[in-house]
Design goal:
178 residues; alpha+beta; 5-stranded mixed sheet; 6 helices; 7 strands; globular; disordered C terminus
Length: 178
C-alpha cells in the first residue's frame, strides 16, 4: 500500500548496512516514526481515508530519502528509516523536517481535505546506541515511546530518551520494555 519496503527487508538490510558502517567507521541513523493518534483518525474518517494517508505518507517518505537510505513500513502506522552515514544529530534534523512536512500535509479524499496528521519520531544511531540492528532498533523504539509520552508530534533522540527513562524509573513509574 505504501510503496515502501517491509519489515523483513528492513531486518535483512539493516545488518548489512551496519557491517558496512563498521568497515567504513561510519554512523548509521535509524528513525522510528509513528503516526500520532491514527486509530482516532481512522475512527473519525474511516479506514479508506486512513489508507489514503498511509499511501500519501509512503510516497512522501520515498521522495524525501536519499538513494542510499532505506524507507520501510515497520507495521501498522509505524515506519522506519535507515540513514547510512548519518550521525544522530543529522538524523534528528532530518526527522524534524519530516515532522514539519507531515504537519503541512493536506490530502484530498472523498470531497474533503484530510489534515491534522502528526508524527512522533524516535532517533538512534549506530554505533552510539547499539552494536547490532536489533539493539539500535530497540533504542529508536524506546525513544519513540518517550516522544509519545512527552506529548507526541515531536522528535526524541535516544540519548534524551535514556535520560528520561532513568528519571522515570527513579520516580517509580513503569516503563515499557521494547
Amino acid at each position: 500500500m505504501t510503496g515502501l519496503f517491509n519489515r523483513r527487508y528492513l531486518e535483512e538490510t539493516l545488518e548489512r548496512e551496519l557491517k558496512r558502517a563498521e568497515r567504513e567507521n561510519a554512523p548509521v541513523g535509524v528513525l522510528m516514526l509513528d503516526l500520532d493518534n491514527f486509530k482516532r483518525f481512522n475512527d473519525s474518517y474511516g479506514h479508506a481515508a486512513g489508507d489514503e494517508i498511509m499511501r500519501v505518507l509512503g510516497r512522501m517518505l520515498g521522495r524525501q530519502v536519499r538513494v542510499e537510505d532505506i524507507a520501510c513500513r515497520y507495521g501498522g502506522e509505524e515506519f522506519t528509516l535507515v540513514l547510512p552515514g548519518c550521525s544522530l544529530e543529522a538524523a534528528c534534523q532530518r526527522a524534524e523536517v519530516l515532522c514539519g512536512n507531515v504537519r503541512d500535509l493536506r490530502v484530498p479524499f472523498a470531497g474533503q481535505v484530510l489534515g491534522g496528521v502528526t508524527l512522533s519520531v524516535g532517533v538512534a544511531a549506530y554505533p552510539q546506541h547499539g552494536a547490532t540492528g536489533p539493539a539500535v532498533m530497540r533504542s529508536a523504539d524506546s525513544a519513540l515511546y518517550q516522544a509519545k509520552l512527552a506529548g507526541r508530534n515531536r522528535v526524541m533522540p535516544a540519548s534524551m530518551a535514556h535520560e528520561q527513562n532513568a528519571q522515570t524509573l527513579d520516580h517509580g513509574a513503569g516503563f515499557r520494555q521494547p
